[in-house]
Amino acid sequence: MTIRPAGPGPSTAAAPGPPLLAMSRVSKSYPGVTALEDVDFELHAGEVHCLVGENGAGKSTLVKLLGGAELPTRGRISVDGAELAMRAPLDALRAGIGVIYQDFKLVPHLSVAENISLGLLPRRARLPVIDWPALRARARRLLAMLGEDLPVDRRVADLSPAQQQLVEIARVLGHDVRIVAMDEPSATLADRELATLFGVVRRLAARRVGVIYISHRLDEVDEIADRVTVLRDGRKVGTYAAASLDRSTLVRHMVGRELADEAPPGDRPAGGVMLRVEGLRRAPAVRDVSFELRRGEVLCIAGLVGSGRTEAARLIFAADRRDAGRIELDGREIDPRSPREAIDLGIGLLTEDRNQQGLIMQLSVRDNILLSGLRSLRRRLAIDWRRADDVSRGFVDSLRIRTPGIHQKVTHLSGGNRQKVVLARWLFTEARLLLFDEPTKGIDVAIKREIHGMLRDLAARGIGVVVISSDLPEVLALGDRIGVMREGRMRAVLDRREATAQRIMELATASEPRTGALA
Questions:
Q1: What pTM was estimated for this model as a whole?
Q2: What confidence tens digit (pLDDT) does each residue in 388-416 have?
Q3: Which of 52, 58, 246, 490 has the smallest CB count inside 10 Å?
Q4: Per-state percent for the chain, helix, strand, coil, to nearest 5
């Protein structure tokens, strides 16, 4: 983020003219928790208004209220001065409000054109059949508004995440919306795709569409925002002109305190080799991966998207079957044939997509924590639920999971607290090797540092910690050693003293380094 002089406080110079959108004293409560309390928010036509805050601050809840996915407990939502009676997402669309959630609302097996026109399929005059030429022409026209040209007959399942996002935006624009809210739109994007997204946002603003943009990446706020509203613990801290904020001031508003810059790990004595991987292969993604993990260290694995990092972790966890290679754990060769066998050997994998692959969203905090180790709680033929409750509360307390109680559904938790629930599950299995795939993706700066501290503590306790990350500053701050993968091969393992951003990028790309995150 470009460092600017700190402003005096919340901006009093609002954009000219009446607001396009006004949310007044909006509140939302769930059983046992208040997600939003008396929040005011305004958006003007042609404005990019960033919404920031820690995990659990209420950002996504506010957007769900705006999109009609949730109903406010109290408060008013107005567009062009007219109060809305919001009862369902269709009411929001009719009012000109489109929301693009973190989880796209697309149908994977349908084409680009079909997804863009979901609910608005054009029909031939006086005939109950779809007008396919009109359907394709409409899709091309909407994509052209975004400055993009995708093959409209291609299945959405075959598109990249960035292309799927464009389809989602085009689908929303097809409803003639004047307000677009984007919840963490950059979470799955590479740097070059992020530039495309910014171009789309600027084109929307130029068309006098008001854009609400939620992001944890503070560099994006500096790049794209006209104004910034900060939420903390469900309350509004303030609205600021983006030009008045520097990074430290913005972080202080978000977390309510100063956060010192995270320093690289100090020297920690590394023990003997606890994990040895030799010649790991599975065509075509993993071609030759060898490395060692020493007891007491954090090993980070960097590389571009598609370099084979995630696929290598899945082979160690036996989620996929390897074609070749040896795995030794604590000096003994192992050959797990399934994730269940890997778990029994003391191996845990925290997947990148925690919502889809790491959690059962409609189950409680307690049930998700106990999922992989429920057998240990059996007493005769039944589960000892009193002990189960005690174990779950112990993890909630020790990991500082913010939840009204162990029976709260994880779907109501923030991203950072969901990640802690996944971590608690693997700790309950008494895993001796933990593989973390993008452990802080979509997590705010304060909880990110908290998780970093937890990972270092795990390593200090003798648990093997391997971290896959696309966040280059995270890799440099967390790793005792850093492995760099490219095209399915481990190109080098660097000691942290010799690891620099430039060196890692040279190894990851085999070309001139570029700035920013690895992916």
A1: 0.61
A2: 889 899 989 888 888 888 999 988 888 78
A3: 246
A4: 35, 25, 40
